[in-house]
Amino acid sequence: MMMYDGMMGGYGLIFMLVYLGLLVYFFYLLSSMAKSLGRIADRLDRLPSLGGERKNQE
Question: How many angstroms separate the Cα of 24 from the Cα of each of 12, 30, 55, 58?
């Protein structure tokens, strides 16, 4: 544990764990946003085949 005996003393390990937790949470949010955007894109792709509403607007 000599790596954590720097300026922050014993709090370096706690800081590192909190930092890694925030990093994992950030990537979790990114992946959930990508999933929901994929669902929205799938719905928009199916929209013209269902009713042809876009052809009527043009």
Answer: 18, 10, 44, 45
pTM of the complete model: 0.56
- pLDDT at site 54: 54
19 near 12, Cβ under 8 Å? no
Q: What is the pLDDT of residues 8-52, one digit of tens each?
A: 667 878 889 999 999 999 999 999 999 999 999 988 888 766 655
Closest CA to 13 of 1, 26, 28, 27: 1
**Look-up of token digits 């876009």:** 54
Cα separation, 33 vs 37, whole angstroms: 6
Say how many C-beta atoms besides its own lie within 10 A of residue 3's C-beta.
8
